[in-house]
Amino acid sequence: MIILKPGKVTLPELEQIYRSDVGVRLDPAMEGAIQHSAARVAQIVAGDAAVYGINTGFGKLASVRIPTEDVATLQRNLILSHCCGVGEALARPVVRLIMALKLISLGRGASGVRYDIIRLIEGMLACDVIPVIPGQGSVGASGDLAPLAHMVAVMIGEGEAVMLGQRMPARQALQLAGLKPVVLAAKEGLALINGTQVSTALALAGLFGAHRALQTTLISGALTTDAIMGSTAPLHDEIHQLRGHRGQIDTARSLSRLLATSEIRQSHLENDPRVQDPYCIRCQPQVAGAALDLIRQVAATLCTEANAVTDNPLLLSDNTVVSGGNFHAEPVAFAADILALAIAEIGSIAQRRIALMVDPALSFGLPAFLVAAPGLNSGMMIAEVTSAALMSENKQMTHPASVDSTPTSANQEDHVSMACHGARRLLKMLDNLNAILGIEIMAATQGIEFRAPLATSPELLKVTRQVRKQVAPLTTDRYMATDIANAAQMVASGAIIGALGSDGLLPPLAGGN
Fold first, then answer.
1. CB-based contacts of 411, cutoff 8 Å, min separation 6
2. What separation in angstroms does the CA of 212 have from each of 207, 339, 348, 356, 428?
3. Rounded to an integer, what distance in angstroms lies between the CA atom of residue 490 and that of residue 442?
């Protein structure tokens, strides 16, 4: 069970929520602050002053005063009218993360919701009642309105949910779970759909996948270095200390440790006719290290955003209610764009390493396309082509979403972040990257086996043995799509990283000094 402490929730906790079925609850110590803000909303409803989001219309309709007897209807209408999402439903791990992020935001006690709202979200998570949320429809301001409305619709007994793997009407799912739909009070609908939780959850999913891919590319790059009998001289620590970038230093150390005891490397330390390796081998720390620095920068931004209050208006500590713009997801949009660059570049240099291995003019003695009897067999010829196609596709998806604002809501919301689809594309990019890295690992394992009786390092041997549990050696041409899918899945699941079986070899998400 993870107890969420708003303002102090960590990235490891969020990753555990995303990757597992761990239980999630809000810190009970937050109940007092939440109830206090709800009581303040009730006072406003009972009074005469018009306060946006509590007893007025929304957006361009903010000047329309709503009678007290219609406040509950206003909130219900808000949710139903905003359920305008389209496209494929978001994956269950992402939706669980969205719900946890909403608990954190509401838990700060600045949103004016009753504790009943908290209990219902906790109950839905505990009973695996997962709202069906279409992935498209948010522009990242004024919050992720449409997708969050689909989440809240389930809470009021509308829309659809998935419970224990079965899709069904929301009211049926709540009934099976022993939960009751909530009747929204003043401001609660707005507090629930205003905010960046969908964009942030998708960006966090991209972050966790990008860091796993970054760690994996150090393994795949080390394997390739040994497969082509590359030099480890460019990994000398002082080279990277002289430049000073933390990510470069950390990735060079990881590569050096992975290759340190390789018999293959020892075999050509002297009398190697080559002076320098191509950049895709020699500059691995510079490229992967720069990507790691970006990933760590994004991690800091998203950890802050995950702990933020992002609805509007907010009930401040002096009991005033103030309209602001925390729902604008520009920080998340920038973070997603930065992650897209890192993901594309990790794949770009990995693809060049694949191309290096299959080319007999460059691979230092490996057979063409990494197969015996080339010509009769095409070997990994088209696997390399597939990696090139995926690399190019990822490059095309790196166009920044954050610069593509368009006015909405009758020009009331005249600058928006586009964070939601900027973050959502990261998951497709990661699918592509995982396949590229899977192909590289297949190729490098094949290349290393051609170096027998020389062996790679004990650490990398663990990886090649893991690979061979899923992908047999390529002795003659065969149907390879299944092999690539299995290799990509090993990358995505963390099985390649897990094969090392030891800590300290790969750089963590948080950087040191």
1. 60
2. 9, 13, 16, 24, 15
3. 11
Residue with tokens 């709800």: 38
Give the predicted TM-score (pTM) of the model: 0.96
Residue-wise pLDDT tens for the chain (513 aa)? 999 999 999 999 999 999 999 999 999 999 999 999 999 999 988 888 878 878 877 766 777 788 888 888 989 999 999 999 999 999 999 999 999 999 999 999 999 999 999 999 999 999 999 999 999 999 988 889 999 999 999 999 999 999 989 999 999 999 999 999 999 999 999 999 999 999 999 999 999 999 999 999 999 999 999 999 999 999 999 999 999 999 999 999 999 999 999 999 999 988 888 889 999 999 999 999 999 999 999 999 999 999 999 999 999 999 899 999 999 999 999 999 999 999 999 999 999 999 999 999 999 999 999 999 999 999 999 999 999 999 999 999 999 999 998 888 877 788 889 999 999 999 999 999 999 999 999 999 999 999 999 999 999 999 999 999 999 999 999 999 999 999 999 999 999 999 998 777 999 998 654
Residues labelled catalytic: 52
